[in-house]
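Recall the central idea of this unit: under ordinary conditions, the amino acid sequence of a chain determines the structure it adopts. In this exercise we apply that idea directly, starting from the sequence alone.
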Amino acid sequence: MTTSDLPVPAVRRPAAPPRDTAALERALRERVDGEVRFDAGSRAAYSTDASNFRQTPIGVVLPQTPEAAAEALAVAREHDAPVLSRGGGTSLAGQCTNTAVVIDWSKYCDRVESVDETARTCVVQPGIVLDQLNRQLAPTGLRFGPEPAS
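Accordingly, the structure predicted from this sequence is:
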């Protein structure tokens, strides 16, 4: 095997905020239905999870709907800003923190969209908490597992 047979290595861009963070924030505020937070306090609150890792985000978006989150992704892409999807912030290995636009689903996008008892399936929004889901499924006799330590 020669070096020419090896795959081209992946190149990672440095984890740096976009050049014009103010323009990114303006565009998110104009186009996203939800809360857009770029203040120091919100960024500090989202710089940690249940781990010992600390990464201050560029900003935080709490979309009102999944469609609003899709628009936040489009804005971030236009501004060459990385995005991090965040659930409950319970990660023990730092997955919920990064120098990125954090999309926090937990405040508004926490609904059960549909339940099909026959197929034993359901469609949920990404911010739903497992205990809430199982409470809503209880009348059907369905239950989603496994149960994490929390």
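The CA atoms of residues 32 and 68 lie 5 Å apart.
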